[in-house]
Specification:
Layout: H1 8-14, E1 18-22, E2 27-38, E3 56-60, E4 79-91, H2 92-98, E5 106-111, H3 115-129, E6 137-148, H4 152-166, E7 172-178, E8 181-187, E9 190-195, E10 198-201, E11 204-209, H5 217-224, H6 227-247, E12 253-261, E13 265-275, H7 280-286, E14 295-296, H8 298-308, E15 319-325, E16 336-341, E17 346-350, E18 353-362, H9 368-385, H10 393-403, H11 418-426, H12 433-436, E19 451-456, H13 461-471, E20 475-480, H14 486-491, E21 495-497, H15 510-525, E22 529-532, H16 534-542, E23 546-563, E24 566-579, E25 586-587, E26 590-594, E27 600-605, E28 608-611, H17 623-635
Parallel strand pairs: 19-20, 19-21, 21-22, 22-28
Antiparallel strand pairs: 1-2, 1-7, 2-4, 3-4, 3-15, 5-6, 6-14, 6-18, 7-8, 8-17, 9-10, 9-16, 10-13, 11-13, 12-13, 15-16, 17-18, 23-24, 25-26, 26-27, 27-28
Helix pairs in contact: 3-9, 5-11, 6-13, 15-16
């Protein structure tokens, strides 16, 4: 006979760690157990002492990016694991009836960084980071903070009730109550999940703050037509495809775009799916963390965050990872499924203080005060949902009417509007069919039996590039710039010298020096070389072609350019360019493909080829055909 469970109020008062998670509209899952703080993702205890699989809910802080060798402000936030002893599903109405509803007053609320100072940070990031080629976009956060005199567990339950009552469209609505720390939120975004070997990622980007009275098709249309918002979404899809290509044998396929409609905000999103046999902890490590809350390329984004954010992130932009034993797993498969939403739209209580971290994605088109407004909108979305600030009364009435299925409230979703649906679908006309369509084997590929070494210069576009090269039949190995040996460079059948952030002219950078060594050594050998983006610029410089900064960075820019007599629609992520005099078609032994201004898009010569754009990007509609042409040229034997 099972013992009756304690009330939620009694549970909160008991000090027993627990979590409440709503993943659908009808139930709330209650998880109770013991806490274990571990150092590494590999240490998450998915088996007991006898090797029997067990369920674990892990709060993964941002500082875990150190596992990938990335920089961060290290606040020693624990990788906190709730080892689940009991997991029960409760009716949502029953939970709501138990949760407290007395308002929790806030003391001295406000942002830790004033608006004008945050706007200055935005300007510096655009000028000093994006403007110097350090990356395509970066997410810089600030925190809304306040004092909280109430018991933290009861405050968390109170806010969970408000979220369940007033927020809609969340992926997880949750409260996690552990000693000295409470997290409560409504995350709109699943970072990564793995179920029966199928890995799913859900890049969400672009934030439409609903006007007073709620969103309409007209106001949403203006948002969807924004170049800045559209490019922001494409860039994060590219970044998450890099991760998918690292963990999935089939590289990943994208579907969408869709709308993520919440009570006060609407986002645009894609869904990425692929197959993997990796342990879910390894999947989580290889996908730390979402570019929607960090930037791209990921490694350099962490460095930029460390330079410009004034304090550690704690759990903001980390994940809540639920590892659930999979009884159907067979030998060689992962023993657990994974469900891991991003820790955003989340309030934290620790040491009598409330903290609501929010960030804005900064791109080349960003307006500093617009990004200030975005942080206000995101903070208000959380604070309004938990009742800490006044809610939009008209929007509340509309939401209530929708919940009651009143005809006057239809259509319920703006995505159902035919014009909105058509506007969303039209975005895919700009994208590469390679990533939109199923990627079957398609035969052995034109370069079957041949091999390539891809040298990674700290941009995991190389994982997507490697996947495309494998699709063309090549066997591929990826080596990081700091680990690749001269022997590897010499022995490889084809060397693909990859892209990366930064100024190729910087003599103080060890990474630039090593990439120059790779390109120079390979050129001198006369053996096949393909150079991409940063390495294209290095190759051009070695041929005597000058390098220059672009007047405006080409970060996430799609252009149709002439590549040796054939037009190609390609995605660009560059701040620097190789530049020749207008009309130049050759430089020494190299043919030059350049525009009317002299900006060089591709080079080819005996045993080598290069391209400025990213043929692997979703923005490169002609990426695969152009890649095949350039690889074929590089592999062509040099005439006697």
């Amino acid at each position: 006979m099972s013992r009756p469970r304690p009330s939620l109020r009694d549970l909160a008062a008991s000090g027993i760690p627990f979590a409440l998670i709503a993943r659908d509209d009808t139930t709330v899952e209650l998880l109770t157990g013991e806490i274990a703080d571990v150092e590494l993702l590999a240490d998450i205890p998915l088996q007991d002492a006898d090797g029997i699989p067990r369920e674990v809910l892990a709060l993964v802080p941002f500082r875990q990016v150190r596992e990938r060798g990335f920089e961060c402000h290290d606040d020693a936030a624990p990788l906190r694991c709730l080892i689940v002893d009991e997991h029960i599903a409760l009716p949502r109405d029953e939970v709501l009836a138990e949760l407290p509803s007395v308002p929790v007053p806030l003391v001295d609320p406000g942002f830790d960084i004033p608006d004008e100072e945050y706007a200055d940070i935005v300007r510096r990031v655009i000028a000093d980071e994006i403007g110097r080629g350090e990356g395509a976009n970066f997410v810089i956060r600030r925190d809304f903070t306040a004092g909280v005199d109430a018991d933290p567990a009861l405050a968390g339950l109170t806010w969970l009730r408000a979220l369940l009552e007033h927020e809609r469209g969340a992926y997880w609505t949750f409260a996690v109550v552990t000693p000295s720390h409470v997290a409560v939120g409504a995350s709109p975004e699943a970072h990564v999940s793995a179920q029966d070997g199928v890995v799913t990622m859900n890049p969400i980007s672009g934030t439409f703050r609903h006007p007073a009275g709620g969103a309409t098709a007209a106001t949403l249309t203006e948002f969807l037509q924004s170049t800045k918002e559209t490019e922001e979404l494409f860039m994060v899809v590219d970044e998450e495809l890099k991760m998918m290509s690292a963990v999935c044998s089939d590289g990943g396929r994208i579907t969408g775009p869709h709308l993520k409609e919440m009570s006060r905000l609407t986002h645009t999103e894609y869904v990425l799916r692929g197959r993997s046999r990796l342990d879910p902890r390894d999947i989580l490590r290889e996908t730390m963390f979402a570019p929607t809350v960090t930037g791209s390329p990921m490694q350099n984004a962490c460095t930029v965050i460390t330079r410009h954010e004034r304090s550690p992130r704690g759990y903001y932009s980390g994940v809540a990872a639920l590892f659930t034993p999979n009884p159907s797993a067979t030998s060689g498969e992962a023993t657990h499924d994974l469900d891991a939403p991003i820790l955003i739209r989340t309030a934290y209580i620790e040491g009598g203080r409330l903290r609501v971290p929010v960030g804005a994605t900064l791109v080349r088109h960003s307006d500093p005060y617009g990004e200030v407004g975005e942080t206000h909108g995101k903070a208000a979305g959380v604070l309004g949902a938990i009742g800490a600030v006044p809610r939009d009364a008209v929007a509340e009435q509309i939401a209530a009417a929708i919940d009651e299925d009143e005809p006057a409230a239809q259509p319920q979703l703006l995505a159902d509007d035919p014009e909105i649906s058509a506007l969303l679908a039209s975005r895919n006309a700009r994208l590469a069919s390679f990533w939109l369509n199923p990627q079957g084997s398609g035969g052995p590929g034109p370069f079957a039996g041949r091999s390539a070494l891809v040298v990674d210069a700290e941009d995991r576009f190389t994982t997507m590039l490697a996947h495309q090269l494998r699709h063309l039949g090549l066997g591929v190995e990826i080596a990081p710039w700091h680990a690749v040996t001269d022997e590897q460079v010499d022995a490889a059948e084809l060397v693909v010298s990859g892209p990366g952030p930064g100024d190729p002219r910087d003599p103080s950078s060890p990474r630039m020096r090593r990439m120059r060594d790779v390109v120079t050594r390979r050129r001198a050998s006369g053996r096949p070389l393909l150079a991409v983006c940063l390495s294209h610029q290095i190759l051009a410089d070695s041929l005597g072609v000058g390098l220059a900064s672009l007047a405006a960075p080409h970060q996430g820019l799609q252009k149709t350019v002439d590549v040796f007599g054939e037009p190609a629609s390609i995605g660009f992520y560059n701040t620097f360019t190789a530049r020749v005099s207008p009309g130049t078609t050759t430089v020494g032994v190299a043919e030059v493909a350049a525009d009317a201004a002299g900006d060089v898009y591709a080079l080819r010569g005996p045993g080598f080829a290069s391209v400025q754009g990213h043929l692997e990007s979703i923005l490169s509609r002609d990426g695969m055909t152009t890649l095949e042409r350039l690889v074929a040229h590089a592999l062509t034997p040099i005439a006697g």
